Amino acid sequence: MAFFANSNSKSTQKQKHNADPALQPWVEKYRPQSIDDVSAQDHTVSVLRKTLTSTNLPHLLFYGPPGTGKTSTILALARQLFGPDNFRSRVLELNASDERGIAIVREKVKNFARQTPRAQAVSSDGKVYPCPPYKIIILDEADSMTQDAQGALRRIMETYARITRFCLVCNYVTRIIEPLASRCSKFRFTPLDSSSARNRLSYIATSENITVPTEVIDTLIATSSGDLRRAITYLQSASRLASSTDPPTPITPADIQEIAGVVPDPVINNLATVLGIDVDIQMSDSTKTAQKPNSFDSIRKRIKEIMREGYSAAQILSQLHDLVVLHPTLNGRQKSRAALVFAEADKALCDGADEELWILEVALQVYKAVS
């Protein structure tokens, strides 16, 4: 009886891990399964592709902005090296949710690193994998590890280099201690270009049988700032929102901006117009009359209206900064004076200052700078 109970519990646990693809987040569902599926990172992919033939893999350090494919790349490479049967026994992944102080490095990481890899097993899918004689330890967001933990890791990397390879994944390479970074081959992941992001998002939309206009794709790319993971998440949220009504409604750029927490363009453009910045937007006659440029009261009234809508002060500051700095008709002196105001306000908001007062201060100073 105990045997049957144990077998049933194992089968139940196995079914629990086999999630229905329809219920998966699209970020996981469309994660690259091979390094050839990785978008935009051509240099890194071309170098790693050679390791599939030589099986000579050094310690790796992947760094770059979030959502550019760092973790997906090393996981895809590990799958191609070891196959599905050996992946679990040959790869250890620790991410930011795991405690990675010096105790964990000395215990869990060291214990896994010192184990001699098992002999190559026959793959259940009928394919032949290189299955080199080493394991891979992936430390995601390694820049959040303590200095002591990084120091302990350096010694482990030296001791077990013959049977274990390390891949450090981080956003800020300067937070990795130099003795650790010097032992790794560094690969910089750049934000995805618009063409690569557009192709990937269009592929996902086609696979999910949803209609996504070109302007929606452009809005996804603009709001995600090169972070493909964020763009895919926004697309899935917008798809669920559109399909929640009967009949389903089309996805619009406004939906994407609402999901992303971005201040709508007309709101920022109207604010810029009140501040005396020439913005080519279409406004009703009543809006134009109510603005009364060159008036402190009109600026204060507009700021109050925006803040009552519940928009983030940091987001307002970021979008207004981009509009001013990239404006084609403002000169360098005007932009530099405005940039100093944005920097001062950003520091004040980080220190917990009142949001509405500082957005009003920024608006008045920008108005003064561009006048």
UniProtKB/TrEMBL annotation:
Residues 1-12 have a biased composition (Polar residues). Its main location: nucleus. Belongs to the activator 1 small subunits family. Gene3D superfamilies: 1.10.8.60, 1.20.272.10, P-loop containing nucleotide triphosphate hydrolases. Residues 56-193 form the AAA+ ATPase domain. It comes from Amanita thiersii Skay4041. This is Replication factor C subunit 2. Residues 1-21 are annotated as: Disordered. SMART domains: AAA. One of its GO terms (cellular component) is nucleus. It is found in: Nucleus. GO terms for biological process: DNA repair; DNA replication checkpoint signaling; DNA strand elongation involved in DNA replication. Keywords: ATP-binding, DNA replication, DNA-binding, Nucleotide-binding, Nucleus. GO terms for molecular function: ATP binding; ATP hydrolysis activity; DNA binding; DNA clamp loader activity.
